[in-house]
Each structure stands twice: as structure tokens, then as C-alpha cells.
Description:
Blueprint lengths: L1 E6 L12 H10 L3 E6 L4 E5 L5 H16 L5 E5 H10 L10 E8 L20 E5 L2 E7 L20 E5 H13 L3
Antiparallel strand pairs: 1-3, 1-4, 2-3, 5-7, 5-8, 6-7
Helix pairs in contact: 3-4
Amino acid sequence: MIYVALLRGINVGGKNKVDMKMLKLTFENAGMTDVVTYINTGNIIFSHHNLSKAELAHVLEEVIYKDFELHIRVVIRSIDEIRQIMDAVPDTWQNDKHMKSDVLFLWEDIDDESVLENLVIKPDIDTVTYVPGAVLWSVAKKDVTKSGLSRIVGTKLYKQMTVRNVNTARKIYELMQTAPR
């Protein structure tokens, strides 16, 4: 099965520095195959055939701690789950000079449509959708400071998700589609 591991909070603002070549080796030493990293924010595509997603997350969190001495949370999504998420992202959404569009990947314990009730959503500014495994959020760049999205940073809820912009999410899905089967 093809998966992506999304690591939360590495190589951000000079904190939790992790070399991607070393991380790739860590994954391979833990039994993952066909390992590919994408940019240095913790996106690792790999194959594995025996463990559940929860078991994979546990194993990977342990080996990351062993090799890097960092407590890093890991979200695991299968290619089918990423396909479902990416199919829900409107084709017009971009992360560019006009638009900020993100995929907020959710940990299992908050992965439910009711998560929207805990977000500050400004309907006249924010476009927000829940899809199993993620919240999709888009706002015009000129309105980012007025968006409810900016209010989530630092909250308890924010610590239960990891965010990728839609351009990165699309590239992850593309890499998963071309991964050896």
C-alpha cells in the first residue's frame, strides 16, 4: 500500500531541524520501501504492506525520536484517502499571490465534520469544507489577516492537525500516483 507520512512541525522557523536524506534512511531502516521525501517540511511517500496506519504512525514516531531525539507527531494517509481529499479541492484553488488555500490534515481523534464547529469561520471571507481526513480552507490573500484561519494558530485544535498548502498537497498526490506499486 502507498502512504504519505505528514510530519508536524519540522524545519519550521529553525526548530526541529531534520535532514531529509537522514529521514529517508530512518524510514528505510524502519522497513518502509520506495521512500521519497518532498520538500523539507516532512512529507514522505512510502510503501508498506503489513502494518495498519496507527501502527505505522507509532513506529515512525518512535524511530524519529530514536534517530533525531524529537517528539514529532505523524499523520498517515493512504493513496485512496489522499485521492478523496484532493478530489474535494476545487481546481480553482491555488496558493499564489492572489489566494491562500490550505489542507489541514486532521488527527484521528478530531477527524469528524463536527471539527468545523470549533473553527472561527468568516463566511464572507473564508471558504471552508470538511472532507474525511482534512479541512479545506481558502481565502483571498488580501483578506488573510481578517480570516478565521489566522486565529487557529497556537490553539489546542491546531496541535491536532498538520497543514499543507494546496500546491504541496497536489504534488504529494502526484508523487503517490507515480510511486511503484
